[in-house]
Design goal:
The complex is a heterodimer. Chain A is mostly helical. Chain A folds into 2 domains: 67 residues; 76 residues. Chain A is built from 5 helices and no strands. Chain B is mainly alpha-helical. Helix content of chain B is 75%, strand content 1%. Chain B contains 21 helices and 2 strands. The longest helix of chain B has 49 residues. Chain B is globular. The chains are: A mainly alpha, B mainly alpha. Chains A and B meet through α1, α2, α3, α4 and α5 of A and α7, α9, α17, α18 and α19 of B.
Amino acid sequence: MQQLDGRALARADLVTGACVAALGVVVVVLALQMPDFAERGVNPLTAPGIFPGVIGMVLTVCGAVLVARSWRSPGEGERRSVDWQAVRRVLGALAIMAAAVAAVGRVDFRLLVGAVTLAFTVFFLEWKIPRGRLVPRLVAVAVTVALVAYAIPTLFEQVFLVRLP
Amino acid sequence: MIDSFLELATPTTAFNVVWATFGGMVIGLLPGLTATMGLALMTSLTYGMGSQQAILVLICLYIGSIYGGSRSAILLNIPGTPANAATAMEGYPMAMSGRASHALGVSTVASLVGSLFGALCLYLLAPVLAELALGFGSFEYFFLGVFGILIAGTMTSLEDPVKGWISGFFGLLVAMIGLEAIHAYERLSFGQLQLAGGIALIPAMVGAFGVSELLTSIASRRSGDVATTREPFRLSGQLREMASSWVTTIRACFIGIAIGIIPGVGEDVAAWISYAAGRRSRRGRDYGKGSSDGLIAAETANSAALPGAIIPALTLAVPGSAPAAVLLAAMFIHNVRPGPLIMIENPDFVASVVWIVVFGSIVMAVLGLLVTRPLVAILKIPKEYLTPVIFALCIIGPYALSQRLFDVHVMLAFGVLGFLMRLMRYPMAPLILGIILGGMIDQNLRRALVLFERDPTDLLVRPIAMTLAFLCCATILAAIPGVRAFVAGRFGRIGTA
């Protein structure tokens, strides 16, 4: 999956510019709702909402610039077809990562990273290979799973004295 | 300096320098693993170490990874880190024309010269900058922080500075989440206890640089021809080459240091600016065809930028690059207080950092000349095996810092955000710089406003603050095409008059 360019980038800029501008407006509103502690006799120029308000305004302006620019020049070049294989790979990886993060703290960490490693190798390695290459590949997967599930947690826990989830 | 050298000259130091530099080279060599990601992940390894050895490990890892990226850039045409993209422009054509060993040797010597020059500048400039920073007040820190965000946004996204600024200000917004320092008011936490604690830097960095790199690498099935390194290697040939390109070397050293000191910009921009300057020189006509002069321009500059980026991190607590930002966070974790007072409170630490850069650079050159060929074998490991290993480290790193599961969730969220930002060409460095500088800019803005209310003329008698404010305005104006065209027109007219 390559970085966007041409028409696709201009369209993405239009959408992200609108989102950034909307976020900026929301931040300004939230900043205005923050207290200034004037009732405590505090100088209102030290109010906690001042800098978030400034950030919100800058984001609004930058988002508006992005929207205006992409609206005026919608990009050039032919429409590039979507690389669905790359999208599938990214979504697959994200699903494995999200499942792993959700399971952290609920499942034994060694078991978890072993399962993640197995899932990554099963999902992403090419398995339509000649039978002669299948055994070395299975051995390589087993070694990687063992390494990640046992060696890395042990190294961190025993050598670097890091507490694991 | 001598005391610091004697304090550091221990077998433990030697052991740590060798493994950390070698580890950095492996990280840099592998496409998809950047120096920032390596440092962010390895910070968790250093929690149990003393502060000096921890910083030593991280700096050596930093040196090794910036250098290691040149190996895959030369042999595979895939820059291991963004800092080595310009290296690939000359190194790969050299390698494909049968001069791979020569290119590897020249880049090693160039990196060594650049980083040693950087160490010298670190030694000379850090006390000067710290002395200067002692006079900094709220106005100066506020404008310095804003200038850092603006210039990092501009330089890391030259074709579209607005995106760089959005990235930087979004980072500042992230830094606003949680308890603020003046009134202890919970901002943007929406009543969530986890958000009240704020978004920690390390989980955000591991996500933005680590997980997003993994996703980018998974998305693409890049592969290339590995150039062979069978021709004989002669160090004298490389030294002769460096001597013949002495103008380029000196220019690259100064560009590297200058770009390194600018907050948040970093080694990749230094390499490109130096390469572009070399291209305009007399020897520039050979660039793009395997010019060793171009290779020297890129590698010397990115290596000189590295100690350059450490200078503001140590003396102003403002990082010069994304990896230096992790280094800065690691310093705070290890109870080292970077900032203007460092030369008063902990002068030996600055001297130690200079020696660490020297040790790391020497070990980098020795290892680079000895183990490049076996290292290249690592490139043959499919990324499908490496991805889960790195992802396991991405979980361990953020969790180990404060044992909060929330940090693991933050890591994944920033990973997805970082991936989408890359896809849409938003630079990542200003985002991280924003998270780091947010608290500092916020507090100093509010203090500066109170001072300004008391005496508005106070700002006028502060030349550094006024200069920084002028630089902020100039950076914004320079990004507006109409203003650029107007200035170019005026200068053009003056030039032709």
